[in-house]
Write a structure and sequence with these properties.
Number of helices: 11
Shape: flat
Distance between the termini: 32 Å
Largest sheet: 4 strands, mixed
Number of strands: 17
Radius of gyration: 22 Å
Strand order of the largest sheet: 1-10-11-12
Order of helices and strands: EHEEHEEEHEEEHEEHEHEHHEEHHEEH
Strand content: 25-35%
Length: 408
């Protein structure tokens, strides 16, 4: 018989992690292109690597219309500077980086599948930009409808950046990671069992100082004290030294942190990365739509925990399948949930892009600390809205959407 108690772990990384640097570069270039031409087609990849004598960034992919190479390089340097890579000793230098740009236009064959217009019920619809499966998830563990493990992992990494940039812990450097293990009892989080934080730092800082500062100014500033107890284990820079970091310590590549970007391993993943892709790519827009569906279902009180899968074929507007899992937490019949999803959500690429207003430069801000359960510069990301929760609740015969759970 399965124990009613279990441990689950999720991780996040800071904006200075080499893979996240690449995600931010790719999405900053997407923002450049879609800000200039809202119909731009963008599939942009980036790589970074440094040595003691050179810093190298590569930007490559397919973009229509093509941006100028000089402005691409300007975007790359701006991203590196914003993150804090301004000195070679940190692992990369924005000013000194060699930036290789290798971009072509979008494939004519892909464009054919995306752009062909199919008349269905007097409505013109755009086909999906690729085949694939996208997963959306929501649960009632936090006010953001996210799993507590990944919620805290992201919050720890954001806090590392905040105390570094504010000067509170000025000896920190951009690279870092966090990992949180939560103990669950009968499906509900009851305590934090372990916290792992690894943060890059200046040379000459004692391990004891880093441990004390990170525990006091990062961990205890983020994690609600009710989840911490005498049995909580702390692993802060467990190797003892983390001076060499960023692209000097590890190469980076767009799209290698897909579990960090989504639900911390709590939900399944369709496999596609997000960053550098315009919204005709359903890897991105379909995943955003699936999150939007799942969050509204949970906010409406139809289920406490909900995972939905959408699947698409290239050039075809309607999903080829919609399936979901309530994990036994549903409060109405699953047939009712399916009916309401099909009735109230337009899950064609054109419907998603239009309803969520995705043809605008909002993407770089998604590229660190997760795409879900957080806000953008101008408020909630559109896929985080729960504007259909009341409609779903009414359609299911429930008294109204549930109140948000307390924020952690």
């Amino acid at each position: 018989m399965r124990s009613p108690r279990l441990l689950f772990t999720s991780e996040s990384v800071t904006e200075g992690h080499p893979d996240k640097v690449c995600d931010q570069i790719s999405d900053a270039i997407l923002d450049l292109c879609i800000g200039r031409d809202r119909m731009a087609r963008v599939a942009c990849e980036s790589s970074v690597k440094s040595s003691d004598s050179w810093d190298w960034v590569a930007v490559y992919g397919e973009i229509t219309p093509l941006p100028g190479e000089r402005e691409v390089r300007d975007v790359v340097r701006a991203v590196l500077t914003d993150i804090g890579y301004t000195d070679p000793k940190y692992g990369a230098s924005a000013k000194d980086s060699e930036i290789a740009v290798r971009l072509t236009g979008q494939s004519a064959d892909i464009d054919l599948g995306v752009s062909q217009r199919v008349v269905q019920a007097a409505e013109r619809k755009v086909g999906a930009g690729d085949q694939g499966m996208m997963i959306g998830f929501a649960c009632d563990e936090t006010a953001e409808y996210m799993p507590l493990t990944v919620h805290y992992a992201h919050a720890l990494c954001r806090r590392l950046a905040d105390v570094r940039k504010s000067g509170q812990l000025a000896y920190l450097r951009p690279d870092g990671k966090a990992q949180v293990t939560v103990e669950y009892c009968e499906g509900k989080p009851v305590r934090v069992d372990a916290v792992v934080v690894s943060t890059q730092h200046d040379d000459g800082i004692s391990h004891a100082q880093i441990v004390a500062d990170v525990k006091a100014h990062v961990i205890e500033a983020v994690i609600d004290a009710k989840y911490l107890d005498g049995g909580t284990k702390y692993f802060i820079n467990p190797t003892g030294n983390f001076v060499i970091g960023g692209p000097l310590g590890d190469s980076g590549l767009t799209g290698r942190k897909i579990i960090v970007d989504t639900y911390g391993g709590v939900a399944r993943h369709g496999g596609g990365a997000f960053s550098g892709k315009d919204p005709t790519k359903v890897d991105r827009s379909g995943a955003y739509a699936a999150r939007y569906v799942a969050k509204n279902v949970v906010a409406a009180g139809l289920a406490d925990r909900f995972e939905v899968q959408l699947a698409y074929a290239i050039g075809v507007a309607e999903p080829v399948s919609i399936s979901f899992e309530t994990f036994g937490t549903e409060h109405v019949d699953e047939e009712v949930i399916e009916r309401l999803i099909r009735q109230h959500f337009d899950l064609t690429p054109a419907g998603i892009i239009g309803h969520l207003n995705l043809r605008r430069p909002i993407y770089r801000q998604t590229a660190a600390y997760g795409h879900f359960g957080r806000h953008g510069d101008s408020g909630a990301f559109p896929w985080e809205q729960v504007d259909l929760a009341a409609t779903l609740a009414a359609g299911a015969g429930l008294p109204g959407p549930r109140a948000a759970v307390p924020s952690h």
